[in-house]
Write a structure and sequence with these properties.
The structure holds two protein chains of two kinds. Chain A is α/β, with parallel strands linked by helices. In chain A, 28% of the residues lie in helices and 31% in strands. In chain A, a hairpin with a 2-residue loop joins strand 8 and strand 9. Chain B contains 14 helices and no strands. The longest helix of chain B is centred in the last third of the chain and has 32 residues. Classes of the chains: A alpha/beta, B mainly alpha.
Chain lengths: 448, 273
């Protein structure tokens, strides 16, 4: 039996022009255009022709970018807004965790708010009395339950809202990205509660940005894009397709930003003394991190040797801006020296978003002494395994004399992003493994 | 529409607890707390009787125990006007509920009206005190009409509240218009002056032009005010029963109109507030 059924559901919002926005009752009456003005000038489909069913006891995860219509979809299922077109039916009592504690009144105590909120969500007074202790315990607010809600921290507020909503004992639970309500411990408690719901055969519709959660927890996934269903089905497949899509657009965005940065750098005349921005510290100068922090992006140098192209290349040999942690990573530099030069050093530096130098090296440091460069040349810096944690990184590339005199210095001009399925922290991910004695065991909660 | 109306009965518990919350929250944190429900009407009465006894004594002169006369019209008016003014903004300020929770929106204006009715009831002991103090000629046969008047006023006020709350979502100007309108409405109702001033009691000379009398007659609150005054203030039997019953029928119709409009606009609230 289907708990949630949508067939060709659309939600069309009306966009009014400036004229309509300032129109008021008076002007509408005066011009006699009340009816006409109430008609929209333009429409916007937040949800477009969406059909799916969730059978009882299943969990559906809804993913998609911001503004893709996920929350509107949830509100439609919850019955808060009505579909403009199509048919929608939901069987059983619904509880929607859309905005937690939306009905709380700040002046009255948590205790009274629990009762009123519970009644709003469809419980009877008796039912609330019976579950009251459980709710308070779940929210971890035993000490504060008689204080006015306005004195609560936002976390306490959310926890109480969550606790009430979850104890409504719905047949269909709608969840909109609310797992970020508390600390780790509380989040786990919420997940446990969801798991319990699942066990008891309740239907859950989960809107989230946490893709891992969708893969781990949902029976099916729905990917919304621009209001329409882009994919529906096995969570692993849908999430995979979604990640690929996000990376593609990120790639495009980074490429655009990169092109822009280089364009603005190119407008600097080659011989402009870059020393104004940064004293001639070559990239290999390990003693100059302070200056590294201060430096902003830019390009400078005499251009006696010029870096004509910088390409970041992934394992597939294609230029890219998005890389996966642990994959190979290559920086390919095209150089040109109009006249033969014998004193040159090629260097590279990787910085994270905070400006911390993650790694820097150059040919001089690695005991390679420049002999001769003339005409077009190519240098490739290869990393076999890009062991950085997830984040955005910037690249310095430079050609300079051994004494630091710059030929061509690209400061933070190239951006790339590292993606990782593991949410570990820091900068560098050393190759590692865990070893445990037989007396401790684990189960895998997801795949890396 | 009637299906939704029937559903309203199921929200009794919700309405009840929201009214209680409203009353609790209003005075939370103030020193006198709940006593404000008594003090507020008392102070209002004091101001009006001061003004009309000493600054504008003309209309007061004819009426013995002017305070009592004034109070019997002023107390219900306060309930009426406060309900209308508050309910016009209630959907907008309760936007969070309408947008984020599956919540029957009509509960909000209804709660507003009922909370103000409770304030009205809390003012009644003061009124009773005045009645006793002035030795008003109360008769049981008159007093039985009191709940009827209250009921008619409740239905009428609910109709206005539903209509205004729904329309204000689309036309925010209504709130400002209403503030001024209520001022005028107050003076166009025989509360500070007796209706005989306009309606042509043989004893008083009629000075107002005819259309003013018409305005007063079509003003629904006129009939409520007169009813209250006849029951509580004027001696003799209640003479306004016919008009009160007519108003009762009108109020029921008005309530249905208000609910109809509200119901029609219901689906737009979540998007507009």
């Amino acid at each position: 039996m289907n708990a949630i059924e949508l067939s060709r559901v659309s939600k069309i919002y009306q966009k009014y022009s400036r004229r309509r926005q300032f129109a008021t009752l008076k002007s509408a009456l005066l011009s006699g255009s009340l009816i006409r003005d109430l008609r929209p000038d333009d429409t916007f489909a937040a949800v477009r022709d969406v059909s799916f069913t969730v059978s009882g006891g299943r969990t559906l995860g809804v993913i998609g970018r911001n503004g893709s219509g996920k929350s509107t979809l949830l509100k439609l299922v919850a019955g808060i807004t009505k579909p403009s077109e199509g048919h929608l039916s939901v069987r059983g009592r619904i509880s929607a965790l859309i905005e937690l504690g939306a009905g709380f009144h700040p002046e009255i105590s948590g205790r009274e708010n629990v009762f009123i909120n519970g009644i709003m969500l469809g419980l009877s007074k008796k039912e609330i009395t019976r579950r009251f202790d459980e709710i308070v315990e779940f929210a971890e607010l035993q000490e504060f339950i008689d204080a006015p809600v306005k004195t609560y921290s936002s976390g306490m507020y959310m926890r109480l809202g969550f606790a009430v909503a979850i104890h409504v004992d719905p047949d269909v639970l709608l969840v909109d990205e609310v797992l970020a309500v508390g600390d780790e411990g509380f989040t786990h408690k919420c997940l446990d509660k969801f798991a319990e719901f699942k066990r008891r055969g309740k239907t859950i519709l989960l809107v989230t940005h946490s893709l891992g959660l969708v893969e781990r927890f949902c029976d099916e996934a729905l990917w919304l894009d621009g209001g329409s269903v882009k994919a529906l089905g096995d969570p692993k497949r849908v999430v995979g397709a979604y990640i690929t899509d996000v990376e593609t657009s990120e790639e495009q965005e980074l490429a655009k930003a990169d092109a822009k940065a280089q364009e603005s750098a190119a407008t600097m005349s080659p011989d402009e003394p870059a020393s104004a921005v940064l004293p001639d510290h070559p990239i290999d100068s390990a003693t100059a991190p302070a200056d590294m922090f201060r430096a902003t992006e830019g390009r400078w140098g005499s251009r006696e040797v010029e870096i004509t192209d910088v390409a970041l290349v992934g394992p597939d040999g294609e230029r890219s801006h998005v890389f996966h942690s642990g994959e190979s990573f290559n920086v390919r530099l095209r150089l040109r020296a109009p006249v033969a030069i014998s004193d040159f050093v090629v260097g590279i530096g990787i910085f994270n978003a905070e400006g911390v130098c993650c790694y820097g090296t150059n040919t001089d440091i690695e005991q390679l002494k420049g002999e001769r460069i003339f005409g077009d040349a190519e240098a490739v810096f290869s990393i076999e395994s890009l062991d950085l944690v997830e984040g955005t990184y910037k690249l310095d590339v430079a050609v300079h004399r051994a004494d630091g005199y710059p030929y061509d210095y690209h400061r933070l001009l190239h951006t790339f992003r590292v993606k990782s399925r593991t949410k570990d922290v820091g900068i560098y991910r050393p190759k590692h493994e865990w070893q445990f004695s037989d007396t401790m065991t684990f189960t895998r909660s997801g795949e890396l | 529409m009637f299906h939704n109306l029937a559903r309203l009965a199921r929200y009794r518990g919700l309405i009840q607890s929201l009214v209680a919350r409203e009353l609790k929250a209003r005075y939370r944190g103030s020193v006198l707390g709940f006593f404000w429900s008594f003090i507020n009407p008392l102070l209002l009465l004091l101001i009006y009787s001061f003004v009309f006894k000493y600054f504008l004594p003309r209309s007061a002169n004819d009426l013995p125990h002017y305070e009592l006369f004034l109070f019997s019209g002023l107390l219900p008016w306060t309930w009426f006007s406060a309900s209308l003014l508050e309910s016009s903004g209630v959907l907008i300020s309760g936007g969070n509920l309408i947008k984020k929770v599956l919540f029957p929106a009509e509960v909000l204006p209804i709660v507003t009206v009922l909370a103000n009715m409770v304030h009205f009831f809390l003012g009644l002991p003061i009124l009773a005190g005045f009645l006793v103090y002035f030795g008003a000629p109360l008769q049981l046969s008159e007093l039985v009409w009191f709940p009827v008047v209250v009921l008619v006023q409740l239905v009428l006020t609910l109709g206005f509240a539903l209509l205004l709350s729904a329309l204000t979502v689309h036309f925010r100007d209504l709130r400002d218009i209403l503030t001024n309108l209520m001022n005028f409405w107050f003076f166009a109702t025989p509360i500070i002056y007796p209706y005989t001033v306009i309606f042509g009691d043989p004893k008083t000379e009629v000075t107002a032009p005819g259309w003013v009398a018409t305005l007063l007659k079509v003003n629904p609150f006129t009939h409520l005010a007169i009813s209250y005054q006849e029951i509580l203030y004027f001696p003799g039997p209640v003479g306004h029963v016919f008009w009160l019953l007519v108003l009762g029928v009108v109020s029921v119709v008005w309530f249905l109109v208000g609910y109809f409009v509200f119901d029609r606009l219901r689906d737009t609230f979540a998007e507009e507030v």
